[in-house]
């Protein structure tokens, strides 16, 4: 900045008050600033710029909430009971606690680490004026009422009021989303987090530390918010229901098993209490779908790794499935639909007949003169843009015109662009003046009638262009023109310079995909609503329909009214950060599942409030920190991949959840049957571990990773329950009938360990066989690799019973006599009949219910 040109005396001022310190050129001021006593008093009162950095969740809180869950407690107690009974082989189910808790702790520790690092402010040193001297201090050492120097290139460290200014201009886009710089006059408020792009100012600090604007944004963004997972909610509901049943059933099972071995005294005397405990645990463990909780976490993790290979970072695993449920997607214009770059489109000459041709295709003399004028205008535009530090528009012009063969020419004098003036100027070698700037500003100062020009400007603006006017004073100007920058009345409008934001190549295709999927997309931006609306039209936000555009300053304050208005609005401009958050809240009130994209700090609060926050890779660190998903390479076209992965998780987990819940249903029903009839439990925990691994656990993991693009339909839990009940009832009925009928027919005494073991092996084989049939039902269609998967696990389960180690560990074996095979065949045949009859009954009931709904 040229202080002498502005009439401001400059002196060398020591930053640290000693001769060896770094020196800086600053205006000489008489302001004294705070003295030592005042500084000490403010420090004692805690009025410093220190900001708390901790999140609301401690390490102990994270560990406690992942380890001491109701699910883990039930499994742990069951495992301890089995170990106390001396049957460690039946306690292997307890390992799932360690794995599941470990995944949860690591995930949340990662989130805590990210949030703890979150900060909008760059903690560099600042220059303050104290006791008549300029002193450099750390960010945290700034106190309330300090006189703070804000210099070009520095970030404002604390809120304040401008006391004196020498052309200070701030970039507030980090806070407001508005890309244009703002000139600050004396008395104007400035906010921490903004950046000085030019000029200088002396500012009195009015808010420090947690009271500053940037700190408040950060604090709200740092609040820990668990991603709501429809899948996890459904699973937790199952766990809660089963927990209510487990406790009383467990007590009743223990009592019934003690009765089955001859009562408490006999159980203690003979040691049969151990078998009673293990039998009771069999029922309890079977009712808890422990593998489902683990598989859900693993499935989320695998999906996150797959997305990472496509430059999509998933910071919270549960968010993988959230976008599958989203029906409202709020898009920030800059960084999402556009890449933030400016493109020079063309120079639109205002002279008539520029493109006129005669009948022979030869340009007329007038047209040739205009063409020369066009080249002159383009050269002048190049020179006007060729400042020492051109802004984004200037860089775009220089890049485009350089490609067309233009080069810098000599300039006598220059007036740099200022956002306060809204124009720049040069004096060419022929002493003519060229102006470039905001059309309405230049036209308001010249004598020529600009009504027609303004009409064209508005037309281009409505098409999404950024429009600047090029004007020329054809006469000769005296030296010293730049000393007093003014607009000449003799300036003549020559051309309109049309620029536009660069729209991402993939934006239109991606938006069309979301429309086809039934997701309502809205553009929410801090920029001019007309410009944003034009870009939305150009990119096909609403297809063939013209998008409905609204200025956010006209939005109602009431959330209910806002929700009603938003149903009919596609584009919102001039949106403040608080409004973005309120918009998300209003959409929630309307029953929508909301995703929000963004790249600026002004988007952070809305991303935090949304069901799913999506940040671009070039976003501000604070924005990426609060987002659940980060598109690392900032490609909007990755969002369909995220949606597809979320749908895969939801659709496949619905399949496998049905598998696990079948086990829960038949375990609960078998436990109830055992309690009511006082028979020994029909299988051991190790039996269900073996059967569950081959018919549920391992196949479920494979099925969960299979391709699946089915759209998510609300009602996950209801569908899973309806699917699981018939299979669970069929298995429970088959097992109970086997234990009730077979001993009576064969004359077996279940108090004899060997005979009880044979019945338990028989019941376990029944469960395995019907488990394979349930797996086949879940894996449909079977005319692909899915059929081979079912056959493979059926074969592995049978072959495993011939392996001595497996047979001994899991206490499972096939009959060794002809009579045993005959009994097994009859029992399996009856069980299969019961299974298919139950399935047929379920289909009949569903058909009747559907017919009633259709009436």
UniProtKB/TrEMBL annotation:
Alphabetical keyword list: Hydrolase, Membrane, Translocase, Transmembrane, Transmembrane helix
What kind of membrane protein is this, topologically? Multi-pass membrane protein
Kindly list the residue ranges recorded as spanning the membrane. 67-85, 91-109, 235-256, 276-302, 656-681, 687-708, 720-738, 758-776, 788-810, 822-845
GO molecular function of the protein, one example?
ATP hydrolysis activity
Give the GO cellular component terms, alphabetically: plasma membrane
State the PROSITE patterns in the record: ATPASE_E1_E2
Task: Respond yes or no to whether keyword NADP is given for this record.
Answer: no
Primary location class: membrane
InterPro entries attached here? ATPase_P-typ_cyto_dom_N, ATPase_P-typ_P_site, ATPase_P-typ_TM_dom_sf, ATPase_P-typ_transduc_dom_A_sf, ATPase_P-type_domA, HAD-like_sf, HAD_sf, P_typ_ATPase
What domain of life does the native source organism fall in?
Bacteria
Instruction: Tell whether Ribonucleoprotein is among the UniProt keywords.
Output: no
At the top of the EC hierarchy, this enzyme's class is hydrolase
**The P-type ATPase A domain covers which part of the protein?**
123-220
| Region of interest (Disordered), residue spans | 1-25
List the subcellular locations.
Cell membrane
The Enzyme Commission number assigned here is: 3.6.3.8
What PANTHER family does the record point to?
CALCIUM-TRANSPORTING ATPASE (PTHR42861)
Protein name per the record: Cation-transporting ATPase
